[in-house]
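Retro notes (design track)

What went well: tokenization of the new backbones is finally stable.
What didn't: we kept losing track of which sequence belonged to which structure.
Fix going forward: every design gets posted as structure first, then sequence, in one message. First example under the new rule, 401 residues:
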């Protein structure tokens, strides 16, 4: 078994080999849909929804499988599986038969594999963070996740010049390289032998635990709102704004993504040193999510492109704080027997709410334009935050390891 002092670096290395390809995909997939195939706003929204929609179906199942199985061995298999879709898409591009239905199929397959992997990796974090501290480990893992994405985004900015095929090969190669890091992780301690109920009862059991926790349910609800009202517009509307309002391509789309994720890295790294000192995490979540709605309102004015990029940087600062603190709350409060299921519910807010938001905002954009598609989610998010603050103890709750 790998010594615990080397487990966390191996975990971070495996995390990086997953999220660099994810960053490539974040730019390359909408670029193929919007720029290469010249699809309209509605089609872009549907494609982004197809990429994220499997989270609705498979994230809870992935959490259940991780709670009952060996997360390290499962994650190893997911790395190997996730190398297949980009290789298949590269083969399609090399034959010159790329089509919209093929991209939809790619999105569904890639999204399904990712949905199983996310709660599995989160279930391993408390195991490998011994000696580091769980709040600090969450902040470091979140920061490295953002760093990996930003490196992938930087790589994807070359798509206009070199095409998609080299990037897809890089995507697959990094996924396979990540197997070496995952193999070095220790196996988690087995759960006490219990009689497992059926699938739906197990999922309902996880939801019940979340609903009964005064600290978890408001965080999960806000996170679901973030998926619908923030992730949706970011994935479906911003690429259209870059293309239609700023006449940009992969390079300009990369600037927007780089600004957002660079700010998220800055915020996450700043929280590494403060991780154990923070207790009013709910209050911090409420403030930063509210600030995000103001940024989205400013983006709806479609300012000059440098200002548009700068606003995404500010938005990314709030995203880094929100994601880090939300994950920390759930990781600390969740019982070990339900941790993967509860983390799957957390990720479902982004992976499940995202496609709903992408579809809705893509449809709104096609009917009423870019400005309305950015403004309405901002107002909806402010309303949700107000309801959560009134109905929960989010503003006053304290969460310590």
């Amino acid at each position: 078994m790998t010594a615990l002092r080397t487990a966390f670096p191996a975990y971070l290395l495996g995390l990086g080999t997953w999220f660099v390809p994810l960053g490539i995909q974040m730019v390359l997939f909408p670029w193929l849909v919007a720029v290469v195939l010249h699809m309209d706003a509605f089609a872009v929204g549907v494609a982004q929804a197809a990429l994220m929609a499997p989270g609705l179906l498979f994230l809870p199942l992935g959490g259940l499988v991780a709670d009952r199985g060996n997360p390290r061995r499962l994650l190893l298999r997911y790395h190997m599986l996730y190398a297949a879709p980009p290789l298949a898409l590269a083969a399609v591009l090399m034959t010159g038969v790329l089509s919209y239905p093929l991209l939809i199929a790619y999105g569904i397959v890639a999204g399904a594999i990712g949905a199983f992997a996310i709660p599995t990796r989160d279930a391993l974090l408390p195991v490998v963070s011994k000696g580091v501290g769980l709040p600090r480990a969450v902040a470091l893992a979140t920061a490295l996740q953002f760093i990996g994405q930003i490196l992938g985004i930087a790589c994807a900015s070359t798509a206009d010049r070199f095409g998609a095929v080299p990037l897809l090969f890089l995507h697959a190669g990094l996924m396979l390289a990540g197997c070496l890091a995952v193999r070095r992780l220790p196996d988690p301690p087995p759960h006490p032998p219990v009689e497992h109920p059926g699938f739906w009862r197990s999922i309902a059991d996880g939801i019940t635990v979340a609903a009964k926790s005064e600290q978890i349910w408001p965080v999960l609800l806000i996170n679901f709102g973030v998926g619908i009202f923030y992730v949706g517009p970011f994935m479906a509307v911003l690429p259209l704004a870059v293309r239609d309002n700023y006449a940009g391509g992969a390079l300009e789309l990369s600037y927007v993504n780089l600004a957002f994720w660079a700010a998220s890295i800055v915020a996450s790294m700043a929280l590494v040193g403060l991780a154990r000192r923070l207790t009013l995490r709910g209050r911090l979540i409420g403030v930063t999510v509210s600030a995000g709605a103001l940024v989205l309102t400013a983006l709806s004015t479609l300012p000059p492109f440098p200002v548009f990029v700068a606003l995404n940087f500010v938005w990314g600062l709030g995203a880094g704080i929100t994601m880090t603190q939300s994950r920390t709350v759930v990781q600390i409060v969740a019982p070990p027997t339900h941790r993967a299921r509860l983390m799957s519910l957390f990720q479902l807010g982004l992976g499940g709410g995202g496609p709903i938001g992408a579809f809705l905002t893509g449809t709104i954009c096609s009917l009423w334009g870019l400005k309305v598609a950015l403004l309405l989610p901002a107002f909806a998010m402010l309303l949700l935050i107000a309801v959560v603050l009134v109905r929960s103890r989010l503003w006053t709750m304290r969460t310590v390891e």
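Added context from the reviewer: Residues 4-188+197-391 form a domain with the Growth Hormone; Chain: A; fold (CATH 1.20.1250.20).
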